[in-house]
Amino acid sequence: MIIFGTRGVTISKESGTFYCPECTTRQPYKLKKARRFFTLYFIPVIPLDALGEFVECQVCKGTYRTNVLQYDPDRQAERIEAEFRRALRHVMLQMMLADGRIDEKEVEAVSAVYESLTGDVLTADEVRREAMAQTGTTVDIRDYLVGLAGLLNDEGKEMVVKAVFLTAMSDGDLAEQEMAFLLLVGRALQMSKHHVRSVVQEMMESAA
């Protein structure tokens, strides 16, 4: 009697190290390819259709899609930090320009708050130069924040709101249009009005 059938066979194509989501650290992996074979007496004889590729962690034995090899947590953290700093500068400058003029107290506030939050120096001259570049241009703040919303946790979002609040309060008062801008920032960051107002209230109480 002739015994035949089909079975899946996995073949290792390459190996290396990757960031394993399960181990949460870099581990050795093997990239494997699965293919269906026609078998004769249980022996794979003729290769048939390809079943796909997957990555197998050699420590936890977890299997993942091949795009897991592209994930680098260090690079991701650097990208988030760069996006955060870029957005922070823009939202503070937009708050500063909300009344249509460049106030020196606000310039000093933007410079001080940015350095306090990021550790990077942003001189008063740089603030003025960037503000002048934005004067008269149409800037939709959502363009800078919507993409950031999914990357920041609640603490990071609150930090952005606090930075904008401190810029607004550099003249000692939070105007109605400035509060509206804060709510716009919060909405772009996918924060509720209640959340934004509670952050503002906390800042006001701490400043009192």
What would you say about this model in short?
The protein is an alpha+beta fold. It has helices at 73-96, 104-118, 124-134, 142-149, 154-168, 176-188, 193-207; strands at residues 4-20, 25-40, 43-57, 63-64. A 4-stranded antiparallel β-sheet has the order 1-2-3-4, with no helix packed on it.
Give a written overview of the molecule.
- The chain has helices at residues 73-96, 104-118, 124-134, 142-149, 154-168, 176-188, 193-207; strands spanning 4-20, 25-40, 43-57, 63-64.
- The protein is of the alpha+beta class and 208 residues long.
- Strand 1 (4-20) and strand 2 form a beta hairpin.
- The chain has a 4-stranded antiparallel sheet, with no helix packed on it.
Topology diagram in text:
Layout: E1 4-20, E2 25-40, E3 43-57, E4 63-64, H1 73-96, H2 104-118, H3 124-134, H4 142-149, H5 154-168, H6 176-188, H7 193-207
Antiparallel strand pairs: 1-2, 2-3, 3-4
Helix pairs in contact: 1-2, 1-5, 2-5, 5-6, 5-7, 6-7
Helix content: 40-55%
Per DSSP, the total helix count is 7
User: Strand arrangement, largest sheet?
Assistant: 1-2-3-4
Estimated share of beta-strand residues = 15-25%
Cα gyration radius (Å): 27 Å
Oligomer: single chain
Shape: elongated
**Number of separate strands:** 4
Low-confidence stretches: none
- Spell out the helices and strands N to C: EEEEHHHHHHH
What's the story with the biggest beta sheet?
Answer: 4 strands, antiparallel
- Compute the separation of the termini in Å: 92 Å
Class by helix and strand content? Answer: alpha+beta
Mean pLDDT: 82
